[in-house]
């Protein structure tokens, strides 16, 4: 009995200090979260309060103007941003998801070239965005002669977010339980049928979340567009993929760099619109995740 009671007493002594450590760790986590949310709330309140006088229909109906900041708008920046994000989603998301499927389901991990691809994808995810801007300027804009157009910006931003899409999609596919694959294959389904009908639907919540986060990063980038020569003040809307363009981050940069106080108010209002677009995109990701999590 003494031998049996020794491990039990040791467990009891060890468990006495565990609740205190867990409680302190929980307090530290909650404090970190509270500090981050407090700074975010302060920033949002400041931007909304300063830009509130310009949060009206003229903001998204009018084109930008240097001479009349009180009636200046950001319509060209909004439409240019939507063009870039739409084309980026069309190019980067299918390519990234298919690449993730190959690396997780088909690639032989023992082959040196597959390991080299995985290493390069991880390295590219950490490359600064300004490097992609230089790449887009030298190869896409000049060597391929795309010029300083919407297509050039979309291809450059697609290359920027592609590693993030691949990594997030691989993690979502990897999280699918192996029993789902084994059960599908045992019932006579082919590997592609198993991936298409079982693995992909189960991994959609993670893929959607990672894709929206990647596009959220793309929508706030300004450095690559500065390298590509995108104009900071464009008074017309892009009419196609070969049109000149501007984006909201560049317009905000242009407004905030001017000395007049009216442009500072206009920049704050433009920041609110940019945050609203980000919030809408994240809301779509949350809705997709919750919808498919209920099914699976």
UniProtKB/TrEMBL annotation:
Keywords: Cell membrane, Membrane, Transmembrane, Transmembrane helix, Transport. The chain crosses the membrane at residues 24-48, 82-103, 124-144, 150-169, 199-219, 263-288. It is a multi-pass membrane protein. Its main location: membrane. The keyword Transport applies. CDD domains: TM_PBP2. Residues 78-284 form the ABC transmembrane type-1 domain. It is found in: Cell membrane. Pfam families: BPD_transp_1 (PF00528). Belongs to the binding-protein-dependent transport system permease family. CysTW subfamily. Part of the binding-protein-dependent transport system for phosphate; probably responsible for the translocation of the substrate across the membrane. NCBIfam families: 3a0107s02c. This is Phosphate transport system permease protein PstA. It comes from Streptosporangium amethystogenes subsp. fukuiense.
């Amino acid at each position: 009995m003494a031998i049996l009671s020794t491990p039990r007493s040791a467990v009891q002594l060890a468990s006495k200090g565990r609740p205190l450590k867990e409680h302190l760790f929980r307090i530290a986590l909650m404090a970190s979260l509270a500090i981050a949310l407090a700074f975010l709330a302060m920033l949002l309140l400041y931007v909304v309060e300063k830009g509130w006088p310009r949060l009206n229909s003229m903001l998204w109906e009018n084109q930008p103007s240097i001479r009349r900041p009180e009636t200046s708008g950001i319509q060209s920046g909004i439409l240019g941003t939507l063009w870039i994000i739409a084309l980026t989603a069309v190019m980067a998301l299918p390519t990234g998801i298919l690449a993730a499927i190959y690396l997780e389901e088909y690639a032989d991990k023992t082959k040196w070239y597959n390991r080299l691809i995985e290493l390069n994808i991880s390295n590219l995810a950490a490359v600064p965005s300004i490097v992609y801007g230089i790449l887009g300027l030298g190869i896409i804009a000049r060597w391929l002669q795309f010029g300083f157009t919407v297509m050039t910006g979309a291809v450059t931003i697609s290359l920027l977010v592609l590693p993030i899409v691949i990594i997030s999609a691989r993690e979502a596919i990897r999280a699918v339980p192996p029993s789902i694959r084994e059960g599908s294959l045992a019932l006579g389904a082919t590997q592609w049928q198993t991936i298409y009908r079982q693995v992909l639907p189960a991994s959609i919540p993670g893929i959607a979340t990672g894709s929206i986060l990647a596009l959220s990063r793309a929508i706030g980038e300004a450095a690559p567009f500065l390298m590509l020569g995108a104009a900071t003040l464009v008074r017309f809307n892009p009419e196609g993929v070969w049109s000149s363009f501007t984006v909201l981050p560049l317009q905000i940069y242009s407004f905030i760099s001017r000395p007049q106080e009216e442009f500072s108010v206009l920049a704050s209002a433009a920041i609110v619109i940019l945050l609203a677009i980000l919030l809408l995109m994240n809301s779509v990701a949350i809705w997709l995740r919750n919808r498919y999590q209920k099914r699976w």
